[in-house]
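Appendix B, record 7
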Amino acid sequence: MFTDKFTTFGIEDSQGYKTVETLIWFITQSLGPIVFAIAALLGAYRIFYFVPIYVYSIQIYWAFDQSLKVDDPLLHFYALGCIFGVFLLLLTFIFIIQKLSKANYILIKNIKKSTRFLSTHVFDNYVEKLPEKDQKNYTIDTIKFIDSLDK
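Structure tokens (predicted):
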């Protein structure tokens, strides 16, 4: 729907249309509703319907404005919509990454607590039954391991 504004895909023959851009515009206008219907069948998120509705709205405005012969003067509206969409997408990615980082931090913290608990539980209940030499070795290894968790 917006493709004719930035590429011609290397097409040189306009197939009887005034320009190659017009040909591409007609093709994308024909394929747009088909892609829209397929997306609806596949259960796309409703927020993604905003993009084609936005573009079609600009084109409807162009169709009813008699002073505009081509929709190129409305290009800044297309660009503003694209910039706003990319900005929202980046904000969403940043938000998701922050949430995942916080969840991972909490998970690692809980794993460290569990490991510390298990090592002290094993020491308190089972190490005392070992010979004295093995108790010392286990104690030294356990302390090193617990200290490594804090790094």
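Remarks on this record: Residues 45-107 form one domain. DSSP finds four helices and no strands in the chain.
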